[in-house]
């Protein structure tokens, strides 16, 4: 399976704005390229990314072929409570990959 | 390969629903000269208090000359705390790239950047790699 990397602070003060960075290994095949035999390589990109904080969606993205291979995204959220950040990527084949990070809020 | 796509303005109109887009409030960072169009770092920051009543709902990127006008749409909310996002994009030619922000009051703000690309992305022939 592919590799996903997420980066979020392990601890934060309540109300603090924290930065979250997420990256996943994915070819992001645009569907506009031709292979050596002249046949167009079928599109396979990550279409959707969702980040949840303690079960509630705090950020999402719709991706198009113009996003680079191994998509990287950075965004932020307010540290509200201790809990789990979950990350989910879905591609054209319907395959999903997820990752998570724990945060302690004081 | 011949590819038909909407123009940059048409793509922006379909995102805004034809609403007026004003320039300002959006800080769009992208290098004006890019050597490799396969991975161009970009960041967008919108001037917004990000409260329940006044926040940025969506941030989107559109391009002028790639095979497809859309690049990405980010969904934010008051829990974002700060309206700042960053990613890496592909550019198939030297062109204009536009960052758009939709606020909770339904206003649209934008910033555009002209980028020169020396090695293009996306539509190269894989057999020559």
Write structural notes for this entry.
- The complex is a heterodimer of chains A (106) and B (129).
- Chain A has 106 residues and is mainly β.
- Chain A has one domain (4-105): Immunoglobulin-like, CATH 2.60.40.
- Chain A is 0% helix and 53% strand.
- Chain B is mainly beta and 129 residues long.
- Chain B has one domain: Immunoglobulin-like.
- Chain B has one helix and nine strands; from the N terminus they run αβββββββββ.
- Chain B has one helix at residues 8-16; strands at 21-23, 26-30, 33-36, 40-46, 56-63, 70-75, 84-89, 95-103, 108-119.
- In chain B, strands 1, 3, 5, 6, 8 and 9 form a six-stranded mixed beta sheet that branches. In chain B, strands 2-4-7 form a three-stranded antiparallel beta sheet, with no helix packed on it.
- Chain A binds chain B through residues 17-18, 30, 32-36, 41, 53, 56, 58-69, 71-78, 80, and chain B through 1, 3, 38-40, 43, 61, 63, 66-68, 70-77, 79-82, 84-91, 121-127.
- Strand 5 of chain A pairs antiparallel with strand 6 of chain B, so a sheet runs across the interface.
Quick rundown:
The complex is a heterodimer of chains A (106) and B (129). Chain A is mainly β. Chain A is built from no helices and 8 strands.
């Amino acid at each position: 399976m592919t590799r996903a990397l997420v980066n979020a602070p392990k601890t934060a003060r309540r109300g603090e704005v924290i930065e979250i960075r997420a990256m996943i290994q994915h070819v992001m095949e645009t569907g506009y390229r031709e292979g050596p035999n002249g046949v167009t390589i079928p599109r396979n990109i990550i279409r959707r990314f969702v980040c949840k904080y303690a079960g509630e969606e705090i950020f999402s993205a719709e991706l198009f072929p113009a996003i680079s291979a191994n998509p990287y995204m950075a965004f932020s959220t307010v540290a509200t409570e201790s809990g789990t950040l979950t990350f989910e990527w879905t591609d054209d084949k319907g395959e999903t990959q997820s990752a998570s990070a724990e945060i302690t809020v004081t | 390969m011949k590819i038909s796509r909407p123009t940059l303005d048409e793509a922006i109109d379909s995102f805004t629903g034809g609403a007026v887009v004003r320039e300002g409030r959006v800080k769009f960072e992208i290098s004006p000269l890019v050597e490799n169009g396969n991975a161009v770092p970009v960041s967008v920051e919108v001037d917004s208090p990000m409260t329940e009543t006044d926040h940025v709902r969506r941030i989107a990127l559109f391009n002028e000359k790639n095979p497809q006008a859309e690049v990405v749409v980010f969904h934010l909310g008051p829990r974002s705390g700060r309206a700042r996002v960053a990613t890496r994009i592909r550019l198939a030619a030297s062109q204009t790239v536009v960052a758009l922000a939709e606020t909770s009051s339904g206003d649209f703000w934008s910033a555009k950047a002209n980028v020169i690309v020396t090695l293009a992305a996306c539509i190269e022939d894989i057999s020559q790699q």
